[in-house]
Structures are given as C-alpha cells and as structure tokens.
C-alpha cells in the first residue's frame, strides 16, 4: 500500500497546521505552502478537501483563514488519509457494496481481508496529528 502524493501532502500540511494550533492566527494556503513546500494550487485544493471533511474550519473576511477543527491529539492519520483518498480499503472486497471480484464466490481469503483492513486502519487511527507534529497532546 502506498499513499498518493495528495494524501502525503495533506499529512504534511496538517502537521504544519498543528504546530500553529495554539496560536490565535488563522492559517492560509499560502502560509502552509511556503512553510511546507507544497505547491500553492495543491495546498489550496487540499485545504478545501480537508475543510469539507471537517478537519479544518474556515472563516471569510478580515482575520479569516483556516484552523484545525479539533485539537491535534483528536485528529488521526486515518482520518487525514480518508479525507483525501476515501475509505481505507486494502482490497475491493473490503469496501462496502463492492462485488466486482471474479473470485468472490469461491475466495477463501476474503473473510480475512476485513480483519487485515481493520488492523491497518486501526494502526493509522492510532497515530495522532499531535504525535506527528511533535506538539503536546
């Protein structure tokens, strides 16, 4: 399993945002782009997705910008990845409602993929944004 560049950039950007979470200042895509090296158009796109997923809040107007929606200790790596890539699924048969595998009816491994998928998601869910950013939880 490999993360997409967008998911990787989202983790990098939110880690930078977490380092600013104790400040009253609002964050911008420009600031996070400059701080992380993520290209500005990509940072803008990700900020919108992360806000849509409820990981960032935004305010318009003077003093506007973005902030983490929750404390960094309450946001985990699985949430960030899912905000960008959708549900974590090691195989198609672990996705709810998917039945597009030709071997599904006779597959002896299928019952075990749910446990494997749960273990991976659990491991990612056990890593907080606070720990990635090195900020107190």
Strand content: 5-15%
The poorly predicted ranges are: none
Shape: elongated
Calculate the terminal CA-CA distance, rounded to whole Å: 28 Å
Q: What structural class results from the helix and strand content?
A: mainly alpha
Helix and strand sequence: HHHEEHHH
Count of discrete alpha- or pi-helical segments spanning 4 or more residues = 6
Average pLDDT for all residues: 88
Major sheet strand order: 1-2
Q: Considering DSSP H and I runs of 4 or more, what fraction of the residues is helical?
A: 40-55%
- Biggest sheet architecture: 2 strands, antiparallel
Care to count the β-strands? 2
Rg on CA atoms, Å: 17 Å
Quick overview:
The chain is mostly helical and 137 residues long.
Please give a structural write-up.
The protein has 137 residues and is mostly helical. Helices cover 48% and strands 6% of the residues. It contains six helices and two strands. A two-stranded antiparallel ribbon has the order 1-2. α1 crosses α3, α1 crosses α4 and α2 packs across α3.
Would you spell out the secondary-structure blueprint of this structure?
Blueprint: H1 5-19, H2 29-36, H3 40-52, E1 56-59, E2 65-68, H4 77-85, H5 110-125, H6 129-133
Helix pairs in contact: 1-2, 1-3, 1-4, 2-3
Keywords:
mainly alpha, two-stranded antiparallel ribbon, 6% strand, 137 residues
């Amino acid at each position: 399993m490999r993360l997409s560049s967008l998911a990787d950039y989202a983790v990098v950007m939110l880690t930078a945002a977490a380092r600013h979470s104790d400040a009253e200042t609002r964050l911008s895509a420009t600031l996070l782009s400059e701080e992380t090296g993520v290209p500005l158009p990509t940072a803008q796109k990700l900020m919108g997705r992360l806000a849509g997923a409820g990981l960032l809040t935004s305010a318009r107007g003077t003093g506007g910008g973005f902030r983490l929606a929750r404390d960094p200790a309450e946001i985990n790596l699985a949430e960030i990845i899912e905000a960008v890539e959708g549900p974590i699924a090691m195989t198609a048969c672990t996705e709810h409602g998917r039945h597009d595998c030709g071997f599904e009816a006779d597959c002896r491994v299928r019952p075990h993929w749910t446990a494997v998928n749960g273990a991976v998601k659990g491991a990612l869910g056990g890593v907080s944004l606070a720990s990635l950013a090195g900020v107190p939880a």
